[in-house]
Amino acid sequence: MPSISITVDGVRYDDDVAPRTLLVHHLRIALGKVGTVVGCDTSNCGACTVLLDGVSVKSCSVLAVQADGSAVTTIEGLAAPDGTLHPVQKAFHERHALQCGFCTPGMILSAVDLISENPDPTEAEIREGIEGNLCRCTGYQNIVHAVRDAATAMREGAPADAAVAS
Ligand code: FES
Ligand code: FES
Asked: What is the pLDDT of residue 159?
């Protein structure tokens, strides 16, 4: 089996993996990163979204071996080490941008990537930016508000966790 080395949420992991192992299964089963969830088997829902070298990807559509040598940020690594929430997490909490929460890890990581690409997104740009993430509970309105709030906070200097860029 191939050996891979992936840094996940700031910690390096060296593992042997079967070539067909999906990154999401490697994260959840081998590394115990169960904050990353599986919501479909068609690469549609976005619940499994993580940041791979700072860019959002659906981890069910990436092989673990493809992440060899990369840095992955999951929802579990987004808050600061002292527990301070990332501005996007804080905004989701304050805007009540979740109900069951199943879509939330992926939604938040897509929003982090969106804001890093476009620090001042319009509502339309937010909706387009998160279109790969499905939510069956909220109707999206509060999610859009939360992303706007987070973008504003980050432009005004709220600290974004350094781990996101690693
Ligand atoms: Fe649905 Fe990955 S689990 S897109
Ligand atoms: Fe339930 Fe989004 S909060 S799927």
From this structure: 61
